[in-house]
């Protein structure tokens, strides 16, 4: 994992000159911004991507790398299925194992019949979409995960799911975008939008103005803070998710595996990327506090695995002292890369749970530990939509824990949206106004 985690000390690699004007500015060089740029350039648009820190410095390099159809919200499912085709095409174009793609499948194990029944119900609903997911019996589990000390009631397996190595994959895709003519500029915060005559006319960056009729905001955990000055309010919350890499562990399941207490996948170097199954931390800041009632039903489902921390760290998007309005230097320059400290207690619990389930794997040693802030919305699906009140503004945020794998699919959708063309999927589930038109929170069928 050379060069990981990405920090403000990491060298600036993408430093293209900024034009005075272009067709589309993308705020944020995570997987979503980079993929949107690739497809928009393919369609002939002149595209600029501005990144306050480094390409994929935040969530997009810190995630588990799972490319997962299994258990997905039914609105997202066709887009992630499309994304798999794009991942394969990128792989064919880049060659040389640049992305670290492996199609080794994802297996979700169930300790109880009740848990297993939930997976079976999801599969019943997902089958018409054409997924290759299948249920796994108790006996078959013993063959798929030999040496398991847990008598799993069964599981659900998706052979066509896969994974990539996120901290190299997104940079490789950014180079592909550059080769298509996209200008990418790291260490270049967008301070705000320029609005003329009620529509987008440009962006104000720390390196000057860029005129543009369209902006995609793919700013991850910063989107709420970025958009609020324009009256565009999204009830976004960010949760801290901790991860560890371990020494190589031979003989474990080769794909992605989860059992509720922990989740792992084998990395290209033979070690595991290991994380708690569902435990995460929520920092309380003014925005989280204001949105808490919207998250009540989400939190009720997940209460025991949520650790509340009353003080969002200084400079975080929802910090108590983070400015909500600014002129000149913005909060996006004050904190270039969101790099929270991992919660070691949750990581150690995951390690112990894995050692108990697979005694042959232990004792496990952590090589690197890290954390990322996952941006989410009350119904745990993103906003992918135009803002009717501000023509030229497109939102692509709130990807929850799913944005990496689906990234190329969302990127293609955004490019067609920017072109004003049909996007080929029903995006009503991801509409912006669902938070303000009285719609009840709909959790869908996701596992
Ligand atoms: C620990 C962890 C595990 C995960 N596991 C998985 C997984 O296995 N599979 C999966 O599919 N997903 C997973 N996810 C979720 C996935 O990583 C995210 O959904 C995805 O990376 C989001 O991509 P993004 O481009 O929307 O945001 P980000 O990657 O957060 O990128 C947003 C970028 O915008 C930049 N930015 C913000 N404001 C500005 C500004 N004003 N000007 C310029 N730049 C700005 C930020 O610096 C940042 O680089 C995981 C996430 C975490 C943290």
TrEMBL record:
Pfam families assigned: DAO
Keyword Oxidoreductase (UniProt): yes
The FAD dependent oxidoreductase domain, residue ranges: 23-417
GO cellular component, one term: cytoplasm
Keywords carried by this UniProt record: Oxidoreductase
Record-level GO BP terms: D-alanine catabolic process
GO molecular function: D-amino-acid dehydrogenase activity
Family assignment from sequence similarity: Belongs to the DadA oxidoreductase family.
PANTHER family documented for this protein: D-AMINO ACID DEHYDROGENASE (PTHR13847:SF280), SARCOSINE DEHYDROGENASE-RELATED (PTHR13847)
Name assigned to this protein: Glycine/D-amino acid oxidase
């Amino acid at each position: 994992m050379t060069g990981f985690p990405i920090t403000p000390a990491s060298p600036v690699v993408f430093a293209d000159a900024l034009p005075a004007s272009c067709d589309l500015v993308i705020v944020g060089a995570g997987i979503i911004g980079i993929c949107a740029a690739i497809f928009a350039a393919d369609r002939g648009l002149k595209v600029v991507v501005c990144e306050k820190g480094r390409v994929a410095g935040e969530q997009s390099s810190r995630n588990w790398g799972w490319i997962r159809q299994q258990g997905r919200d039914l609105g997202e499912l066709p887009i992630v299925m499309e994304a798999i085709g794009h991942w394969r095409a990128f792989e064919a174009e880049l060659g040389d194992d640049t992305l670290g793609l492996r199609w080794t499948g994802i297996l979700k194990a169930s300790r109880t019949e009740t848990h297993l029944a939930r997976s079976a119900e999801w599969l019943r609903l997902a089958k018409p979409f054409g997924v290759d997911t299948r249920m796994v019996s108790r006996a078959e589990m013993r063959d798929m995960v030999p040496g398991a000390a847990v008598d799993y009631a069964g599981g659900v397996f998706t052979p066509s799911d896969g994974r990539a190595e996120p901290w190299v994959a997104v940079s490789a895709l950014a180079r592909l975008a550059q080769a298509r003519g996209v200008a990418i500029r790291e260490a270049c915060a967008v301070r705000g939008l320029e609005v003329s005559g009620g529509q987008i006319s440009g962006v104000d960056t720390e390196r000057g103005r860029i005129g543009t009729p369209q902006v995609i905001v793919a700013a991850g955990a910063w989107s709420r803070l970025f958009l609020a000055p324009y009256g565009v309010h999204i009830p976004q919350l960010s949760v801290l998710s901790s991860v560890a890499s371990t020494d190589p562990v031979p003989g474990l399941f080769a794909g992605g595996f989860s059992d509720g207490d922990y989740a792992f996948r084998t990395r290209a170097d033979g070690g595991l990327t290991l994380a708690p199954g569902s435990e995460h931390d929520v920092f309380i800041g003014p925005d989280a506090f204001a949105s808490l009632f919207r998250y009540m039903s989400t939190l009720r489902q997940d209460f025991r695995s949520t650790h509340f921390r009353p003080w969002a760290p200084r400079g975080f998007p929802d910090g108590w002292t983070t400015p909500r309005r600014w002129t000149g230097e913005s909060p996006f320059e004050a904190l270039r890369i969101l790099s929270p400290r991992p919660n070691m207690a949750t990581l150690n619990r995951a390690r112990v749970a894995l050692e108990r389930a697979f005694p042959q794997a232990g004792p496990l040693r952590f090589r690197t530990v890290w954390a990322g802030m996952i941006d989410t919305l009350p119904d745990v699906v993103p906003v992918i939509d135009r803002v009717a009140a501000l023509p030229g503004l497109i939102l692509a945020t709130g990807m929850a824990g799913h944005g990496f794998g689906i990234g190329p699919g969302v990127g293609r959708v955004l490019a067609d949206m920017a072109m004003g063309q049909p996007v080929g999927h029903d995006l009503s589930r991801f509409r912006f106004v669902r938070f303000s038109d009285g719609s009840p929170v709909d959790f869908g069928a996701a596992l």
